[in-house]
Amino acid sequence: MIYLDHAAATPVSEKVLKAMIPFMTDNFFNPSSAYLPAVRVRGAYEEAKNTIANFIGAKGNDLVITSGATEANALAFTAVSKTGKILVLETEHASVLENVKKYNSKTVKVDRTGLIDLIDLKEKIDDNVELVSVSLANNELGTIQPLAEVSQILKEIRLDRLKRGVTTQLLLHSDASQGIALLELNVARLGVDLMSLNAAKVCGPKGVGALYVGHGVRLNPITLGGGQERGLRAGTENVAGTVGFATALGAIKDHSSATRKKYTTLVENLKNELIKARVEPIFLGNSKHQLANFLPVCFPGLDAERLIFKLEEKEVYVSTGAACSASKGEPSHVLRAIGLTDKEITGSLRISLGVLNNEDNIKEAGRIIRETVNDEYRRING
Ligand code: PLP
Questions:
Q1: Does domain 2-10+256-381 have CATH number 1.10.3720.10?
Q2: Which end of the chain has a smaller Cβ tally under 10 Å, C or N?
Q3: Which residues contact 236 (CB under 8 A, 6 or more apart)?
């Protein structure tokens, strides 16, 4: 098979699996128990949290380990009061858009490449806005948002509020599920108060994530019980998953810039194959601010669902968009937000490269996708 959907899921590496197994077998103890073997497990858990936190320039105590990015996003929004408002990008992942429905929320526009419209953002921040949520990189386009610029805007608005005696908080949250493997992440430099992380996208286990919580940010726990995670997320800690996440991040730290280069070349090779197809592809997203492993592409006039099916027969796996919205069968809200027509949305694929790709299988994938596109073109046009 040739797997080209790393934005949806990544394989757990051998190293990660090896690190996790002891915490499900010999060291199965509950980290809250008092006896020595359990205390050792607690130590390993805290060490893993520190490793994850260090990856983003934070401390273990600043993190709440969650069951993934969906939960981390939901927990982040609890920072907002009953009267507060949330602004989110219209292209955010469903876990952001669905969770903010519980609050007074509005969306901020993006341009045709998926980049945040900073003017629209500024205009929409009234004195009731308590939180702005902007993903690090979009999960369908790979467009990387200028978080530091957003943070600077919020800083200026905070100062202005202070001068006017307005005491409403103004927090910046970022869902960093995508891009964590390829971008240098530092919470202070990015100026975020809350950041969601996702192990499943970096060759760690599924169902494990974390929320970075900046100093002074107050959250309301979603689960109550044994008081774990400083009372912010009750429930026995997922020690194996957390150790797995830390190990996965440890592997990334060594390779990040080399990996970026590798994907840039592979994506370029793939593009060069696709432009030879009988349907001229439109490459989506922002070529200057895009995750190196992303290749969102539209073949106008074709049906991407059919393409996926035809490619699947040849064991090439791509997607039409976020795995979750694709399963609902709805047209992508992301592609709609960047102004694609229904016909263009119907013809759009998301190709995302990763650890399972190399020069050879990308060359092969390019040939297979090109031939499949040509077959579909012939079927439609005779
Ligand atoms: N946010 C983004 C940007 C994602 O890509 C995903 C996963 O696809 C999620 C959130 C949800 O993550 P999880 O399924 O781990 O809760």
A1: no
A2: C
A3: 30, 31, 32, 226, 228
Q: In a 3-state reduction of DSSP, which class is residue 260?
A: helix
138 within ligand 1 shell (Cβ under 6 A)? no
The token pair that represents 265 in the structure block = 């070349």
**CA distance linking residue 109 with residue 210, whole number of Å:** 27
Residues forming the active site:
324
Instruction: Find the 5 Cα to ligand 1 centroid distance in Å.
Output: 14
CATH class of the 14-253 domain in this structure: alpha beta
199 CA to centre of ligand 1 in angstroms: 10
CB of residue 145 inside a 6 A radius of ligand 1: no
- What are the Cα distances from residue 290, in Å, to 140, 147, 151, 178? 11, 14, 20, 11
- CA–CA gap between residue 101 and residue 86 (Å, rounded): 10
For the chain, domain boundaries:
2-10+256-381, 14-253
Q: Are 242 and 52 in contact (CB under 8 A)?
A: yes
What mean pLDDT comes out for the span 285-309? 96
Nearest atom within ligand 1 for CA of residue 70: 16
Query: Is the beta carbon of 135 within 6 A of some atom in ligand 1?
Result: yes
Average pLDDT over residues 334-350: 95
- Looking from the CA of residue 73, the nearest atom of ligand 1 is 10
Residue 173 phi/psi, 5-degree rounding, is -110, 145
Helix (H) or strand (E) holding 304: helix 304-313
129 pairs with which residues across the strands? 85
Give the pLDDT band of residue 257 (cuts 50, 70, 90).
confident
- Distance from Cα 283 to the centre of ligand 1, integer Å: 23
Separation between Cα atoms, residue 195 and residue 180, nearest integer Å: 11
What's the CA-to-centroid distance between 265 and ligand 1, angstroms?
26
Is 229 close to ligand 1, i.e. is its CB under 6 Å away?
no
Q: Which atom of ligand 1 is nearest to the CA of 92?
A: 3
> Which whole number is the average pLDDT over 27-36?
97
